[in-house]
Amino acid sequence: MMGFEAIEIVLIVIFWIVVLPLTTLLHEIGHGIGGILISKERAMVFLGPIEPSNTKTFHIGRMDFHIKWAYFGFCSIKNYHKLNAMQRIAISAGGPAMSLLIVFAFIFLLFFDFPYQLKNFVTAIAIVNAWQFLCTAVPIIYPTWYKAYSGMSSDGYQIVKAWKEYRQERKVRL
């Protein structure tokens, strides 16, 4: 039988190799769900870079998955530029909403009786998803040290930008 230290090491390895990339993938799936629910377009969900070597791995309905193990990801909606402001808001909000949903789901799990190693694991998953929610929901342009996202706008920034466009569109119509 494994000792407590061995279990903790296994959980740490699983966290770094599986949970962190999966957290990013689920966040991007949130964007994809937003995209396919509010439009007739296809969503391309990437774990890893958007480059020719990251080819389509599989698809589910109108969602194409391009999976290459990484800690970063993207979601691209076909004809995104043709969508109206409210559709772009729904797509941008989908990722942070998914992250927040995961936070609440894992906080709920903490009410159950688990060994402390599993409680720590569940807590870590909730924390990393809360961090991802905050890092994506706050409207900023990512700094250079944010590597894969350097110079890109956060989901929150895209929501604010689309909301301003929506308000302008409403003023023109009235």
Overall description:
This protein is an alpha+beta fold and 174 residues long. The protein has one domain. Helix content is 58%, strand content 10%. It contains 4 helices and 4 strands. Strands 2-3-1-4 form a 4-stranded mixed β-sheet, covered by helices on one side. Strand 2 and strand 3 form a beta hairpin. Helix 1 packs antiparallel against helix 2. The radius of gyration is 18 Å and the shape is globular. The mean pLDDT is 95. Keywords: Membrane, Transmembrane, Transmembrane helix. This is Peptidase M50 domain-containing protein. It comes from Virgibacillus halodenitrificans (Bacillus halodenitrificans).
Layout of helices and strands:
Layout: H1 4-38, E1 43-47, E2 58-60, E3 63-67, E4 73-77, H2 85-109, H3 116-137, H4 155-173
Parallel strand pairs: 1-3
Antiparallel strand pairs: 1-4, 2-3
Helix pairs in contact: 1-2, 1-3, 2-3, 2-4
Transmembrane segments: 6-26, 89-112, 124-142
Organism: Virgibacillus halodenitrificans (Bacillus halodenitrificans)
Keywords: Membrane, Transmembrane, Transmembrane helix
What form results from the Cα inertia axes? globular
Distance between the termini: 71 Å
Instruction: Please identify the oligomeric state.
Output: single chain
Low-confidence stretches: none
Query: How many β-strand stretches?
Result: 4
Q: Label the structural class.
A: alpha+beta
Number of domains: 1
Instruction: Determine the number of helices (DSSP H or I, runs of at least 4 residues).
Output: 4
- Portion of residues within helices: 55-70%
Protein name: Peptidase M50 domain-containing protein
Keywords: Membrane, Transmembrane, Transmembrane helix
Organism: Virgibacillus halodenitrificans
